[in-house]
Design a protein that fits this description.
Blueprint lengths: L3 E2 L9 E2 L6 E2 L5 E2 L3 E4 L4 E4 L4 E4 L6 E7 L4 E7 L17 H14 L8 E6 L11 H15 L4 E6 L5 E6 L4 E6 L5 E5 L11
Parallel strand pairs: 5-7, 10-11
Antiparallel strand pairs: 1-2, 1-6, 3-4, 6-9, 7-12, 8-9, 8-10, 12-13, 13-14
Catalytic activity: L-glutaminyl-[protein] + H2O = L-glutamyl-[protein] + NH4(+)
Keywords: Chemotaxis, Hydrolase
EC number: 3.5.1.44
């Protein structure tokens, strides 16, 4: 079993396993591949044969990173932009900057090359439809800036709107899927072929 990074850490990572025996995709099909769920403010990474899934995303954004050379994938469920407060002792991975540091570290622990990562972003919706609520925009701007500072490519995004989303990554195939609202799951990106199933989205 691989390890999943828990967010309420101090300096050292604490790990927990959240593997299930199966999961159901957006079409109701049953899959036997063990999966790991990243809840709000959590970061996870795993090698080939695992499926990484975000819990539902509102203004939060799922950072889906993948190293095609090692088939190691990682997912960070980011809640807030920027860096955590200086006095914060727990929940640091809720913040974009700290979550990315954790994501790249745990992926490297699984064998990934931090310089070889490809990124997709999913989420960042204004689900409450508040006119002056900008947290979803701030999250996207913060993550985009931090990722580009590392010279890592953002291959595909599915962000904005007002409906909740979910992200799912297959580490074996290098495919990432997204679900918006109650719609069926759709493939967003293939990390190996760079194919996009829905290029007009």
């Amino acid at each position: 079993m691989k390890k999943t990074a828990k967010t309420d850490t101090e300096d050292a990572f604490k790990f927990r396993s959240t593997f299930g025996e199966h999961y159901y995709d957006g079409y109701g099909a049953r899959h036997e591949t063990p999966h790991i769920v990243a809840y709000t403010g959590e970061v996870t990474a795993a090698g080939p044969g695992r499926v990484l899934i975000s819990s539902p995303l509102g203004s939060c954004i799922a950072v889906c990173a993948y190293d095609p050379g090692t088939r190691v994938g990682g997912l960070a469920h980011v809640m807030l932009p920027g860096v955590p407060p200086a006095h914060a002792e727990t929940g640091k991975d809720r913040y974009a900057a700290h979550a990315l540091e954790t994501l790249f570290s745990v992926m490297q622990n699984e064998g990934a090359d931090p310089g070889n990562l490809l990124i997709c972003l999913i989420g960042g919706a204004n689900v409450l439809r508040r006119e002056h609520d900008t947290i979803h925009i701030d999250n996207l701007r913060s993550l985009t800036s931090l990722i580009l500072q590392r010279n890592l490519p953002i291959c595909r995004t599915m962000t904005g709107g007002s409906e909740r989303m979910m992200a799912r990554m297959e580490t074996k195939t290098g495919r990432i899927f997204q679900t918006t609202g109650n719609n069926p799951e759709e493939m967003l990106f293939d990390y190996f072929t760079h194919n996009i199933e829905n290029p007009d989205n």
